[in-house]
C-alpha cells in the first residue's frame, strides 16, 4: 500500500470533481492511480461558464465595468482595472494621477485579502482548520478597510473608465494606516505559523514540484511562476498606473532565504511575502499620493459618448493576485464593444497542474490543486454542449470555427 | 518537531471568540414568530454588524424630483430599471439590482440614492419591498 | 437459581451502562467540538449538539449505493457500535469494577478495540465507492501502524505487574488495583511517561482524528470510509465514535491514572461509586482534551506514509524505549 511497494493491482481511476470538498469551484479531475500514487492526471474545466462576455458585448463600457467586478468572487478590482485600462487606451483617456494611486491602493489591498484567503484555503486542504480560521480572521482587517474605502466588501464598484468613483480622503488615512500597521505586526506570526510548522513543512516541501523550465514553457503567471523562480510580474515588467513610480521587484522564494524548489512550500512563501510587499506599496502610495481629480470626465453622459465615438482595439493588463489578467477590447463606433475577451490569470496556470500532480500521492492532490490558487469561474469561457453530451473540440474544429466567425464579421 | 500552533491555541482559549453572533442564540422553531416577538419587544436579537459609511444597500428613489430623462436606464448594468411611459417615471426592480449605484452617479437630479438597508431577502421577487417606484 | 439472578443483574447493568456510555460518549464529542472551537476563536456549537445531530441522522433514511453489498454495508455500523460498547463493559469505571471483568483481560480489550476499525474497513469496501475503497485501505494501514506502539504499552504494563508478583497481570482489575507508578523506580517513571506520551499519540489515531484522519480525510476523500454512509447508519457510526472516545479515555485512566477520590475522603457505598465515577469522567475529559482536542486542533493532516513512519519508526522506537526502561528498572531493582 505505502510508497515503494509496487502493487500488482491494475491502476484504478479516482475521479475528483466537478463537485468535491477539496475543490472550491467546479472542475473535474481524473486520476489513474497505482496504490496511493497518481500515475496520470487529466482535468476538464468548463463547468462554470456564465457567458459574461456575450452579455458584455451588448452593453456599454460603463455597464461592463460593473460586470467585470463580478467576474471573480475574490478579485473585485482586477478585472475592472484591466478592462478600464483597455478602454482608456482606445478612447485615449489620461487617468488623473490621484486616481491611479487610489487604484493601486485598492488593488494591493485586494492582493492582501486574496493571498490571505488562499492561505486559509491551503491550510484547510491540509486539514489544518485552525490555521484556516486564523488566516481568514486576519483577512477581515483588509476586507473592513476595503469596505471602508469603497462601501462594499466584495463588489467594490470603485473603478470607472477614466478614474475611480470614490476618493480616499486624508481623514481616511489613519484607519488605513492602522490596518497596515496591524499587518506588519502580524506578518512574523503568520510566517512562523505557516513556515515553521513541521506538519505543514512535511506536507508541502518537495510536493507539487514545478521546475523553472516547466513554469516558463507552460507560460505560468503570478505567484505560481515566481515560486518556480520565474521573475515575472506585470507591475514590474510593464509598469502601468502608479506602479511606475514605485520601487518594487518580483518576490521569489529566495527572499525567505531558501533555495528555489518550485514546490507548494515555495508558493506559500511567495504569497505571504507578497502580503508584506503590498503593505509597503500601500503605505508608499498613501504618502506620495498627488492631489487632483479622481475622474477624467465626471459627466458620465459625456464619457459615454466619447466611448461611443472611439474606434480601435487594445489590451488592458493588470497583475492580479493570481498573476497577469488580460482584457482585450475592440470598439467600432457603437455603444457596445465589438469584441471583449477576458483571460483570467488562472487560465495560464491550470496546465501546470499536470506536471505537478503526476507522480504525487492522492493525499497531496487537494493542496497541489489549491497551490496555484485556481479561480475557475473567472477562467471558464466555453462549455460546449451538444444535446446532452459534452463534446471535445480539436484544434482543427476551433480553427474552422474561427475562420467562419471571421468571415461573418467581415461580411457585416 | 516545531508546532507553533499549539501555543497559539492555548492562548486563544482564554480570549474572546471572533465570531459575530447570530441574531438569535439558537435557531428558533419559527423565524417569523421570533421576529414578531422581537418586533413586540418580547425577545432581543444580536444586532447585525454595522454597515460602513457610503454602504450601497437598497435603492431609494425620490419620484417627485425625477424628470424622466432615462439616463439611469442607460447605465444600469443589470437592466433593473424600467421606464413607465404613462407617468414618465421609472421603476426599479430591487431583486435584479446589483447595487452598483451607477444610476446614482449619472442622475442629473440626484433623486436616486443608496440606503444602508440590506436585509432584503424574500421569496417573491415582485413583492412590495422588492419594487421601488 | 442464583446464577440466573447474577446473569439478570449483569444484563441489566450492561444495558444501563451502555446507555450511560452512549450519552457520555456523545457529551465527550460535544466537549471536544466546543473546546476546539474556542481554540479556533469560534463560539462553537452547544454541548448537546451531538445529540441534536444524532436525532436528525436517526430520523433520516439509509441510502444504500447501487453497487454496495447491502448486508455488509448495513452490518458494519452495528458491529462498530456493539464492539465499542462491549469494550466499555470491560473497563473499570471509577471504583466500580468492570461488569464483564471476569470474562476477559487487557489482551481481549486490545483485540476488541480493533473491531470498530475493522467494521469501518468492511463497510468501506462494501460501499463500492472508490473514495471509500481508498479510505478503507488507509484505515487498514493505519491500524497496522498504531498496533506496535500500543502493544509495547500493554506489554510494559503486564511486565510490571508480573514482575511485582501480581496474579493475573493482564486483568484490568489487577491493573487498577495496583497503580503502575507505585511499582517502579525513577527510571521506570521515565519509561512510563514515555509510554503515556506514546499512548496520547495512539489515541487520536485509534479515533481517526486529525492528524491521523487519513481514512476519512474530508478534503481528499470526502469522508473516505464513511462517504456513502448516511442517515441511521451514519448515526450509529457517530455513536460508536463517541463510545470509542470514552473507551480510549477510560483505558488511559485505567492504565495510567487509576486513583480514586473515595479513599481520600473515606467515602463508602453508593456515594463513593458516584463520586469516583464522576472523577473518572473528569479524568477522561481532561485526557481527551489534551490528547485529542489539542492535537487535532493544532496540527495538519498527515499523509498515510507519514502515519506509518511516525508509528513504526518514531513512536515504535519510543514505545520500545519506554518498555525497555520499565524492564531495566525492575531488573535493576531486583538486583539492589
Ligand atoms: S444600483 Fe446599479 S443595478 Fe441597481 S438600479 Fe442602479 S444602476 Fe441598476
Ligand atoms: S436619471 Fe434620475 S432624473 Fe433621470 S430618469 Fe433616472 S431617476 Fe429620473
From TrEMBL, chain A:
Cofactor requirement: Fe cation; Ni(2+)
Keyword Metal-binding: yes
InterPro entries for the chain: ComplexI_49kDa-like, NADH_Q_OxRdtase_suD, Ni-dep_hyd_lsu, NiFe-Hase_large
Molecular-function GO terms, alphabetical: oxidoreductase activity
Domain NADH-quinone oxidoreductase subunit D: from-to ranges: 126-381
Chain positions recorded as Fe cation binding sites: 75, 378
Binding-site residues, Mg(2+): 53, 342
SUPFAM superfamilies: HydB/Nqo4-like (SSF56762)
Keywords associated with the record: Iron, Magnesium, Metal-binding, Nickel, Oxidoreductase
Pfam families: Complex1_49kDa, NiFeSe_Hases
Listed name of the protein: NADH dehydrogenase subunit
Automatic annotation (TrEMBL), chain B:
Domain 4Fe-4S ferredoxin-type: from-to ranges: 57-86, 88-117
Organism from which the protein derives: Methanocalculus taiwanensis
Classification via Pfam families: Fer4_10
This protein's name: 4Fe-4S dicluster domain-containing protein
UniProt keyword Iron, yes or no: yes
Molecular function via GO: 4 iron, 4 sulfur cluster binding; metal ion binding; oxidoreductase activity
Stored NCBIfam families: PRK08348.1 (NF006221)
Keywords assigned: 4Fe-4S, Electron transport, Iron, Iron-sulfur, Metal-binding, Repeat, Transport
InterPro entries: 4Fe4S_Fe-S-bd (IPR017896), 4Fe4S_Fe_S_CS (IPR017900), Fe-S_Ferredoxin (IPR050572)
From TrEMBL, chain C:
Stated name of the protein: NADH-quinone oxidoreductase subunit H
Record organism: Methanocalculus taiwanensis
InterPro entries tied to this protein: ComplexI_Subunit1, NADH_UbQ_OxRdtase_su1/FPO
This protein's UniProt keywords: Membrane, Transmembrane, Transmembrane helix
Domain of life of the organism encoding this protein: Archaea
Localization per Swiss-Prot or TrEMBL: Membrane
Transmembrane segments: 6-31, 78-100, 106-128, 140-160, 180-202, 234-257, 277-295, 307-328
Lineage: Archaea, Methanobacteriati, Methanobacteriota, Stenosarchaea group, Methanomicrobia
Membrane topology: Multi-pass membrane protein
Any single GO CC term annotated in Swiss-Prot or TrEMBL for this entry: membrane
Keyword Transmembrane carried by entry: yes
Protease as UniProt keyword: no
Amino acid at each position: 500500500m505505502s510508497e515503494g511497494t509496487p502493487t500488482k493491482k491494475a491502476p484504478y481511476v479516482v475521479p475528483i470533481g466537478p463537485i468535491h470538498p477539496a475543490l472550491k469551484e467546479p472542475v473535474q479531475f481524473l486520476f489513474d492511480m497505482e496504490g496511493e500514487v497518481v500515475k496520470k492526471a487529466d482535468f476538464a474545466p468548463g463547468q462554470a461558464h456564465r457567458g459574461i462576455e456575450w452579455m458584455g458585448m451588448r452593453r456599454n463600457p460603463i455597464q461592463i465595468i460593473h460586470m467585470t467586478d463580478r467576474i471573480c468572487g475574490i478579485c473585485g478590482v482586477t478585472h475592472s482595472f484591466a478592462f478600464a485600462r483597455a478602454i482608456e487606451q482606445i478612447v485615449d483617456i489620461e487617468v488623473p494621477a490621484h486616481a491611479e494611486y487610489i487604484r493601486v491602493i485598492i488593488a494591493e489591498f485586494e492582493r492582501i485579502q486574496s493571498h490571505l484567503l488562499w492561505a486559509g484555503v491551503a491550510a484547510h486542504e491540509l486539514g489544518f482548520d485552525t490555521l484556516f480560521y486564523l488566516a481568514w480572521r486576519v483577512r477581515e482587517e483588509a476586507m473592513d478597510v476595503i469596505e471602508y474605502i469603497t462601501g462594499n466588501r466584495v463588489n467594490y464598484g470603485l473603478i470607472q473608465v477614466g478614474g475611480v468613483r470614490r476618493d480616499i480622503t486624508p481623514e481616511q488615512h489613519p484607519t488605513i494606516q492602522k490596518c497596515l500597521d496591524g499587518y506588519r505586526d502580524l506578518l512574523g506570526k503568520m510566517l512562523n505559523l505557516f513556515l515553521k510548522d513541521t506538519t505543514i513543512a512535511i506536507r508541502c516541501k518537495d510536493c507539487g514540484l514545478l521546475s523553472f523550465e516547466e513554469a516558463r514553457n507552460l507560460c505560468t503567471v503570478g505567484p505560481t511562476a515566481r515560486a518556480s523562480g520565474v521573475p515575472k510580474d506585470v507591475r514590474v515588467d510593464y509598469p502601468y498606473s502608479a506602479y511606475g513610480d514605485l520601487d518594487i521587484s518580483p518576490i521569489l522564494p529566495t527572499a525567505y532565504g531558501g533555495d528555489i524548489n518550485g514546490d507548494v512550500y515555495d508558493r506559500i512563501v511567495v504569497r505571504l511575502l507578497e502580503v508584506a510587499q503590498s503593505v509597503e506599496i500601500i503605505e508608499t502610495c498613501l504618502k506620495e499620493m498627488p492631489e487632483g481629480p479622481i475622474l477624467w470626465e465626471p459627466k458620465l453622459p459625456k464619457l459615454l459618448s466619447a466611448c461611443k465615438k472611439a474606434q480601435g482595439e487594445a489590451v488592458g493588463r493588470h497583475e492580479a493576485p493570481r498573476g497577469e489578467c488580460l482584457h482585450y477590447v475592440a470598439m467600432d463606433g457603437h455603444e457596445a464593444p465589438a469584441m471583449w475577451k477576458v483571460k483570467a490569470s488562472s487560465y495560464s496556470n491550470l496546465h501546470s497542474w499536470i506536471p505537478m500532480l503526476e507522480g504525487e500521492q492522492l493525499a497531496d492532490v487537494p493542496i497541489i490543486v489549491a497551490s496555484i490558487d485556481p479561480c475557475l469561474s473567472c477562467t471558464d469561457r466555453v462549455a460546449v454542449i451538444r444535446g446532452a453530451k459534452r463534446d471535445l473540440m480539436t484544434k482543427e474544429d476551433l480553427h474552422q470555427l474561427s475562420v467562419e466567425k471571421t468571415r461573418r464579421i467581415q461580411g457585416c | 518537531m516545531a508546532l507553533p500552533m499549539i501555543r497559539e491555541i492555548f492562548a486563544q482559549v482564554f480570549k474572546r471568540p471572533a465570531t459575530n453572533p447570530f441574531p438569535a442564540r439558537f435557531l428558533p422553531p419559527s423565524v417569523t414568530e421570533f421576529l414578531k416577538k422581537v418586533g413586540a419587544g418580547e425577545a432581543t436579537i444580536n444586532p447585525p454588524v454595522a454597515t460602513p459609511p457610503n454602504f450601497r444597500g437598497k435603492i431609494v428613489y425620490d419620484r417627485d424630483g425625477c424628470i424622466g430623462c432615462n439616463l439611469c436606464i442607460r447605465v444600469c448594468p443589470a437592466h433593473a430599471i424600467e421606464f413607465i411611459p404613462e407617468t414618465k417615471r421609472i421603476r426599479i426592480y430591487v431583486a435584479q439590482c446589483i447595487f452598483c449605484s451607477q444610476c446614482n452617479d449619472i442622475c442629473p437630479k440626484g433623486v436616486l440614492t443608496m440606503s444602508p438597508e440590506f436585509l432584503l431577502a424574500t421569496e417573491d421577487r415582485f413583492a412590495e419591498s422588492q419594487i421601488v417606484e | 437459581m442464583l446464577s440466573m439472578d447474577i446473569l439478570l443483574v449483569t444484563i441489566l447493568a450492561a444495558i444501563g451502562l451502555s446507555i450511560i456510555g452512549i450519552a457520555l460518549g456523545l457529551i465527550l464529542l460535544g466537549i471536544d467540538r466546543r473546546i476546539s472551537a474556542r481554540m479556533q476563536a469560534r463560539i462553537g456549537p452547544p454541548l448537546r449538539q451531538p445529540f441534536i445531530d444524532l436525532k436528525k441522522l436517526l430520523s433520516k433514511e439509509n441510502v444504500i449505493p447501487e453497487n454496495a453489498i447491502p448486508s455488509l454495508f448495513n452490518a458494519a455500523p452495528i458491529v462498530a457500535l456493539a464492539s465499542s460498547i462491549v469494550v466499555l463493559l470491560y473497563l473499570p469505571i471509577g471504583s466500580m469494577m468492570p461488569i464483564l471483568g471476569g470474562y476477559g483481560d487487557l489482551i481481549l480489550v486490545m483485540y476488541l478495540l480493533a473491531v470498530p476499525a475493522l467494521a469501518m474497513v468492511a463497510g468501506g469496501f462494501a460501499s463500492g465507492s472508490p473514495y471509500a475503497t481508498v479510505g478503507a485501505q488507509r484505515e487498514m494501514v493505519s491500524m497496522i501502524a498504531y498496533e506496535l506502539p500500543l502493544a509495547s504499552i500493554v506489554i510494559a504494563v503486564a511486565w510490571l505487574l508480573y514482575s511485582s508478583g501480581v496474579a493475573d497481570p493482564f486483568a484490568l482489575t489487577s491493573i487498577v488495583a495496583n497503580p503502575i507508578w507505585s511499582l517502579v523506580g525513577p527510571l521506570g517513571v521515565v519509561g512510563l511517561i514515555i509510554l503515556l506520551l506514546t499512548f496520547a499519540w495512539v489515541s487520536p489515531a485509534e479515533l481517526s482524528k486529525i492528524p491521523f484522519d487519513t481514512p476519512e480525510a474530508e478534503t481528499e476523500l470526502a469522508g473516505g470510509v464513511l462517504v456513502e454512509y448516511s442517515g441511521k447508519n451514519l448515526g450509529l457510526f457517530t455513536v460508536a465514535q463517541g463510545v470509542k472516545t470514552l473507551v480510549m479515555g477510560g483505558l488511559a485512566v485505567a492504565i495510567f491514572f487509576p486513583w480514586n477520590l473515595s479513599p481520600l475522603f473515606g467515602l463508602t457505598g453508593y456515594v463513593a461509586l458516584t463520586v469516583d465515577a464522576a472523577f473518572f469522567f473528569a479524568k477522561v475529559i481532561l485526557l481527551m482534551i489534551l490528547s485529542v482536542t489539542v492535537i487535532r486542533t493544532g496540527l495538519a493532516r498527515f499523509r498515510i506514509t507519514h502515519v506509518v513512519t511516525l508509528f513504526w519508526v518514531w513512536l515504535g522506537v519510543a514505545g520500545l524505549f519506554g518498555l525497555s526502561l520499565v524492564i531495566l528498572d525492575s531488573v535493576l531493582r531486583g538486583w539492589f
